[in-house]
Structure formats: C-alpha cells, structure tokens
Amino acid sequence: MNLRQLEVFYAIMQTGTVSGAARNLHVSQPNVTRILAHTEQQLGFGLFERVKGRLVPTVEAKTLLPEAEKVYQQLGQFRSLTNKVKLGHQHLRIGAPPILATKLLTPVIAQMSRDQELSFELLTANRDELCAGLLKHELDVAIAFGDEAPPAVLAETLLTQSLKVLVPSDRVDHLPTELTLDDLINSPLPIIGLDSRDPLGLLLHQSLIARDEHYHHPISVRGYSAAAELVKHQAGLAIVDPWTAAQYQDDEAVCMLPLKPDIQFSVSILCAEHSPQSIAVKQFISALQCSF
C-alpha cells in the first residue's frame, strides 16, 4: 500500500463514505473509488462492505487501522516539518563575541522570534572559537570583528565603525579636544592593551607600534568591558569598540572621546564555505543587514 492508497483508506475509515473521503482529500469521488478498488485488488482481500449507503470496514481493515494510523501520523508530521522548512521555521545556532551578541544580535533575534517562530541558540566566543564552531557544524552563522577569515570560512562585511577612547572623567581637562594616538602614547596614563590575538587588539597593537615600536602596555586584557572597567578605576586609558564605550556614556567616572584620525574596523558575517545556507540563515542575514 503506497502513501496515496493509505490516505484513501484512512479517509474512508474516518468518514465512512467515498464522498466524505473525497472532500477530505480534495479529490473527485471516482478517483477515490478507483484507488480503493486498486488497493483491494493488490491486497487480495476487501477493506469495506457497503451497508445502507455506508462503507463498513472489514475485520481485515480494522486489523490494519492501528498501523495505518501510525504511518499517517508520521506522514502528517513530515508534511508539517516540510512546511516549516519552506517558511524558514528552523532552529538557528548563532555565535558572536559578547558585546556584538548583546548589542547587535539580540534585537534581530527577538524580532524574528516573534514574527516567524524561529528558535535560536546564541553562543558567545572569540573569533577563533567561532570559526572552529562553523567548521565543526556547531554553528550555522557567526558575527565577528574583522574582515579576515581562515580557509573554508567565508566573511562578508556587515558594517564599518571607528574605535573610541575611554578616559577617566577627572583627566579629560588635561587632554586635547581632538585626541590622536600620539597624545595617548605621551599621556601620563598608560593605554590598556587588548590581546593581540583579538582582531581589535591586533589592530590597536599595529596602530601603536607604527608610531612607537617600543610601546609597552603595563596592563593587557582579553575583554573590552574589562578594559573599560579599568578606566573607571583610573588604571589607564582604553581604546575600544563603540558599543562597549556606549555602555559607559552615563557613568560619571568615564568619558568617551573620539580619536583623530579614525581607526576603523569592520564587523563581518561568517559562514562555513562548504555548508549550504538554509532558508532561515538567509532570512537572518537579510534581517541583520537591514537593521543597519
């Protein structure tokens, strides 16, 4: 018994008539009659007997019904799943550094979750870990600082921004209105370093070494928020991304200043090169791009 025959058998069992089965299946009555006759011929026994205009199931039909119901239920679940996949109703695993996950991704995820009933898993990690997750198929898509990517990972620039300077508020009066890297290097307060394995840390390191090859950070951190907190405690100056800086704009102990000339950086969308993007991933990327 193929799936079409199963559908006809189950529909007749539910309605008791050929006409009722035809309505449920959105086909003609002759079509249902023909399929039923062909099914009984293949099986070698009857499934229904006509009694006062209704089709009464035989003992054999009643024996088949429990297994038919299981198959029919699975068929319905499969159809439901294919409809969800077609509409992009899937589970998405997205990775990003903590600050980008919080500031860039959460609004888009919240909106798509409400509108499309997508389920999400948002993971935070550094760039190297995100790329490894993509290659191991542990992530569907990632957002990261920088525009470089290892082999087998594709990077597409999402946006470009400029680094900001955080200084202790009580030191602002002693600094020029337009800060340069030379001003920061010559400042009595040291520049808090970012880990050079981090894209922004490497960018900052290269920019400083270009002006003073002997510059040394007395304090280095891996996290941008840790650098900002050290500024708050007057341990030095920090050059961080604008989202981290914005989190301290209402803090009386910290002041955010622009840097001249700008030190620009990019934020990229990362995907595994040899893994086709699902409909849901494409929808997420499109929604993310449209949010800027």
Structural features:
292 residues, alpha/beta, Arc Repressor Mutant, subunit A, D-Maltodextrin-Binding Protein, domain 2, 3 domains, five-stranded mixed sheet, 11 helices, 46% helix, 22% strand, rod-shaped, WH_DNA-bd_sf, DNA-binding transcription factor activity, transcription regulation, sequence-specific DNA binding, LysR_subst-bd
Can you give a write-up of this model?
The chain has 292 residues and is an alpha/beta fold. It folds into three domains: 70 residues, Arc Repressor Mutant, subunit A (Orthogonal Bundle), CATH 1.10.10.10; 97 residues, Periplasmic binding protein-like II (D-Maltodextrin-Binding Protein, domain 2), CATH 3.40.190.10; 99 residues, D-Maltodextrin-Binding Protein, domain 2 (3-Layer(aba) Sandwich), CATH 3.40.190.10. It is 46% helix and 22% strand. It is built from eleven helices and twelve strands. Helix 1 crosses helix 4. The model has no long low-confidence stretch (mean pLDDT 90).
